[in-house]
Amino acid sequence: MKKTFLIAALSLMLAVGATVTTASPAKAEDLDSMLSGRILIAVQENGEAWYVNPVNLQRYYLGRPADAFSIMQHLGLGVSNEDYNSFNGKAPLRLAGRVLLKVEDWGKAYYIDPTDLKLHFLGSPSNAFQIMSQLGLGITNDNLNGITVYASGSEPGAAKNKNVQISNNYFSPANLVVKTGAMVTWTNNGSVGHTVTSTGNFNSGNIDPGKTYSRMFNIAGTYKYFCDNHPGMTGTITAVVE
Question: Above 50 in pLDDT, residue 68?
Fold first, then answer.
């Protein structure tokens, strides 16, 4: 899909006249702490959204609605019904920006807005979409680059190599963060041929159904790619230094 829901989210915010506040310039060493727990929107790119995890002060790419919902749940902190009820709709400061999971109530997830400590229910991917539209903070590329990107698989002993699945109309995951030196393999699970094409960087040529294409990413950077046969299919690989 050429546009993720995050681009749509930014468009929605503009359409309804919502104010997108942009983070002010700051020293790199202070920026991650200042934006701890915030949902950030890259206003100089395509409206991609990121979440700054208060636990490690690294940013997590939120992707499509289902991806964002899954990430928020994965990073959640378990809370009992008794503790949750004691908040009375406003969490303590120590939980600013966290996601809470009600372990005694089917794992219901709530995002705590660090600006006012109010809790926002994350009941579904559509809820996550609404939360990003309402609470997202615009950020410039310079400031965004001052916050460390979380690299999936960065745990000790975790495998570097990653996989991307190709369907008939999208790549999954569409946006992937890897360590430098990682091998990424695309597998065509669709019924027609596709390509993995990054202008000036790499081109897989036609990948028939059931076939794969692999490439190692030795140089840090963000590589945008698309399918030559279906230009609406896009994705990115972000390689970060180990």
Answer: yes
Cα separation of 67 and 65, whole Å?
5
Q: For residue 178, give both structure tokens.
A: 């890897």
CA dihedral angle for residue 175, residue 171, residue 121, residue 57, rounded to 10 degrees: -10
Q: What is the mean pLDDT of the segment spanning 52-63?
A: 86
Prediction pTM value: 0.57
- What's the rounded Cα separation, in Å, for the pair 201 and 216? 12
pLDDT tens, residue by residue, 6-56: 333 333 333 333 333 455 544 545 788 899 999 999 888 778 888 999 988
Give the pLDDT confidence score for residue 234 in this predicted structure. 96
> What domains sit in the chain, N to C, each tagged with a CATH number?
5-144 (no CATH), 162-240 (2.60.40.420)
Nearest residue to 166 via CA among 182, 187, 143 = 187
Question: How many CB atoms are located within 10 Å of the residue 142 CB?
Answer: 12
